[in-house]
Amino acid sequence: MTVAVRRAPVAVLGGTFDPVHYGHLRPAIELLEGLGLAEVRLVPGRVPPHRATPSRPPALRRALVAAAVDGVPGLVVDDRELQRPGPSYTLDTLRSLRQELGPERPLCFALGSDAFRGLAGWHRWRELIDYAHLVVMTRAGDRGVLPTALRDWLSDRETADPAALRTAPAGRVLFHPVARLEISATQIRRLLAHGRSARGLMPEAVWRRVAEEGLYGYPQP
């Protein structure tokens, strides 16, 4: 029996991006190329349900992400969560994207392995896979130890074949290795708050705006 092959998947990578840096961008590029995706949409969150409210306003974080992906084929900024009031629930975002893309286009939601291990604490987490595949980004292949409930749920949904993401619009879970870049937004904010440079940790266009406008406390007087 012939398996239907759909158009290349669209992927979503969310975060506070406070600020955006190469630790966000490099994995996105590796997903784009390694999985043959049509595009990766970076989605800044307004009110993240599982972490502290971002230190900088939505419009600024969106502008920095837009600067970061400018000229990078396949990476785009998607601000739908910034336009939506209330907590930025992933389920709402995937529903919105599914409406936009239609019922047949493969959609992937990318998240880190740490976030995946805590998935059972997310808002209506079992429904996510009704709208998208889950792509779990692992560092050096490390999946970590999964809670029993999540491990049982995963047992009949996991695939080791990236091609499976093209043969259905949603419903599978793929673990995919990406580069380990020891960069964090917390680290960058700490550097800038102490008057130290974060150059080289983020795209030059982002760094220049951060430096020239004194964002995140940089430069110091």
TrEMBL record:
Record-linked InterPro entries: Cyt_trans-like, NadD/NMNAT, Rossmann-like_a/b/a_fold
EC number(s) per entry: 2.7.7.18
EC main group: transferase
Enzymatic reactions: nicotinate beta-D-ribonucleotide + ATP + H(+) = deamido-NAD(+) + diphosphate
Domain of life: Bacteria
GO molecular function: ATP binding; nicotinate-nucleotide adenylyltransferase activity
GO biological process: NAD+ biosynthetic process
Pathway: Cofactor biosynthesis; NAD(+) biosynthesis; deamido-NAD(+) from nicotinate D-ribonucleotide: step 1/1
Cytidyltransferase-like domain mapped to chain residues: 12-190
Pfam families: CTP_transf_like
Keyword line: ATP-binding, NAD, Nucleotide-binding, Nucleotidyltransferase, Pyridine nucleotide biosynthesis, Transferase
Cross-referenced NCBIfam families: nicotinate (nicotinamide) nucleotide adenylyltransferase (TIGR00482), PRK00071.1-1 (NF000839)
Homology family: Belongs to the NadD family.
Function, in words: Catalyzes the reversible adenylation of nicotinate mononucleotide (NaMN) to nicotinic acid adenine dinucleotide (NaAD).
Name under which the protein is recorded: Probable nicotinate-nucleotide adenylyltransferase
Species of the source: Sediminicurvatus halobius
Upper classification of the organism: Bacteria, Pseudomonadati, Pseudomonadota, Gammaproteobacteria, Chromatiales
